[in-house]
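Incident log, structure service

09:12 report received: a user says their structure output differs between two submissions of the same chain.
09:20 pulled the input from the user's history:
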Amino acid sequence: MSGATSNPENCRRQGLRKLGGFLRASLAPDRLARSLVYAGIAGVVWFFFVQPSAFGSSLSVAALVGAGLVQYSDGKPFIIPLYVYVLAALVLLQLVGLLLGAGGQLGAAVLGSALGLGLPYLAYRLQEKT
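09:34 re-ran on a clean worker, output below:
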């Protein structure tokens, strides 16, 4: 046995390096945004067909649109203008529904858009520093 592999400290460092590489790859902003889009699609299917919930459906749609609003493919974020209008219309419609007493889910729309926009952007900012 060599001295490098028998030392527990070296084994731990090597394991942490592998874990750091895995987390860096899985927390890439474009990959995280794509995963949030897929989670939003799954959430819409679940909360619309399987277990109906207005809050869950609104949250899923807002997260889906929010995650697709900014693209991180070239290393620099690019905003898609059509998605800005769609997300603004979604939030405004939920606000109008809430004000008219029609059961608008403004909290779900704001939370979903914040998660869809914020998580990939946070990953982008953290990746930019390293």
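09:41 both user submissions now match this output. Likely a transient worker issue. Closing.
09:42 reviewer note: The radius of gyration is 20 Å. The longest strand covers residues 70-71.
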